[in-house]
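Issue: ligand-bound run for magnesium ion - logging full I/O for the record.

Environment: standard queue, default settings, no custom constraints.

Inputs:
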Amino acid sequence: MSDTKKISKTTAKPEGLISRFMSATELDTRLIGMVGALALIWIGFHLYGALVNGFGAFLTPRNLWNLSVQTSSIGIMACGMVLVIVTRHIDLSVGSLLGFCAIIMGVIQVNILPSFLGLGHPLIWVIAAACGMLLGATVGAFHGWLIAYRGIPAFIVTLGGLLVWRGAGFLVARGETISPVDSTFALLGGGPYGAVGATGSWIIGLIGCAAVVFGVINGRKQRTKFEFKLRPVWADTFLGLVGCATIIGAVLLVNAYPWPRGIVRRYAEENAITIPEGGLFISHGFAIPVLILLVVGISMTLLMTKTRFGRYVYAIGGNPEAAALAGINTKMMTVKIFAIMGFLAGLSAVVASARLNSATNALGELDELYVIAAAVIGGTSLSGGVGTIFGAILGALVMQSLQTGMVLIGFDAAVQRIVVGSVLVLAVYLDILYRRKSK
Amino acid sequence: MTVNTGTPLVEMRNISISFGGIHAVDDVTVDLYPGEVVGLLGHNGAGKSTLIKCLSGAYQADSGDIFVNGEKATIKNPRDARSHNIETIYQTLALADNLDAASNLFLGRELLTAAGFVDQARMEAETRKIMARLNPNFRKFQAPVSALSGGQRQSVAIARAVYFNARILIMDEPTAALGPQETQMVAELIQELKRQGLGIFLIDHDVHQVKRLCDRASVMKNGELVGTVKVADASEDDLLAMIILGKTPAHLAA
Ligand SMILES: Nc1ncnc2c1ncn2[C@@H]1O[C@H](COP(=O)(O)OP(=O)(O)OP(=O)(O)O)[C@@H](O)[C@H]1O
Ligand SMILES: [Mg+2]
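Outputs:
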């Protein structure tokens, strides 16, 4: 639903080069703005490190790889938060729910299942993860039911949930940390073994490129079939190239980050490989949590843009009364939306506790704020009806980049909070200005 | 002029509904025959919109029955109404402002591809077709409807009601935001649909328009039905008298 398409019809007026480019590619100015902001943050932190600390640590494969892993947990939940905020609700409970799911999964895989299946049984991680996500979805659906069928505002229901689920997690684990998690489960959190390696990353990258090319060609076919206006060939080519270049760049990046030497040595010993002179270079490749985020992002984008469900989410956000008059069961939709949010909080709990290799009571604390901030910075409007999954993931990346960058250059926690808080307010203000102008 | 014999398309019998003590509709009975346009008249707040919302499924009457083709119909929600081929143009238009014309037109009844995905391209193509008929000047197919003028929005709402082969059409002030040319087009559309055998409830404050388009007129005042008259027998002054005084003139009272 880009407004830019309208511009392309006013052919009489001579347009500037930039606006012609924008209208031909049908790119969203907001999207470009976000990519620009991200680039600014990355380069800024790198230069700051290089000039002040004598070492630019930000734009290194190691840091960017870690950044991608750290973004996953928030990014996964941000995808669900888009649906919640688009329908004019809010979910303050996701951080606590994440913690609660993590603890339940921890109990299941550490205290319960090993005594039945034996330690390290291959089914343990599957059952634990499935339980966590199911639990999240159930709690989410319950929240949704209270909101839709009992008429309690989402703000109150989930504010209650914020306290209830944190407390419940504490009760279950009696405040103790549960660790270590199942060894297969731990792979879902990333780390050298929890990544797909160089070859796997290339395969994923090439599939991605093929999908981009297919998308561009198929788009042209559709438009031709219904005699809609086609994008110029150069614009489509440009979009395809940028898409493929981004993907290949990401593959090169994650493959440029090698396993640490200690792990390589252990791996070599276990597999009876002799390490050559200059050392053995084993790439990380894409981390599994990043791939999980990727799958979630793609599925949720499909859900939101290509299915009736997604249509109804936007319609409810735009005008709840009209949606109901069009025969949409808006109450059931609310339950489903919160169930999805809860499911994703459960999935996030898998990633977060696997990464930490333990379930602690503090897991996910303040995450609700980062998740909401990610969605909002990514262009989800708090007044409802507007927001994209891709934007929210980008928003999560922006938030995490700020966080990571400040840690790298040695800002202390107090300053970090001040900066993140200010950025959130500023981002929303810019968004309001942008919307006012584009109206 | 239609001769109203046989089974009515719709019959709303003794409908009552109140909101917190206010009798918005009080024991009102109206009916509608195929190929007929029935005007609903009354002052602001008379209960016209509320009455038809009981038929469109937006509200459920506190008491009273609805018959469609002589059979008792339970209309609990808008989906039930749609399944009885009842389509409605609401006074508020009921459009999702953030979606484009096609998405609004097909809201709740999206066209799907073989894979089960929403077929936006086909929906847009269909929208272009019907808009070419209803409002040939309409161009903004990709803009969200919030970017449309009042009249353009109204034509989207009309297109939505007409597209799905309604048998019973409810139009709540369909021309309120339209210019003279567009109003004329809606008038022609109503006459065409009438010829096709649809039954239409038309709510309109313009007595002249009602005179021109309707076969019968039902007048409401303070939630109650004043009376139903054949438009051919009633002058504009008669209709105005009914609306304002709330009494059916002696020469029309059957
Ligand atoms: N949802 C509601 N809640 C409370 N009162 C309502 C509601 N809907 C309608 N009413 C009341 O019912 C009465 C009838 O309203 P209605 O909208 O049916 O009038 P109308 O005849 O359509 O008027 P208009 O010509 O202004 O559109 C009014 O007094 C109104 O205030
Ligand atoms: Mg009304």
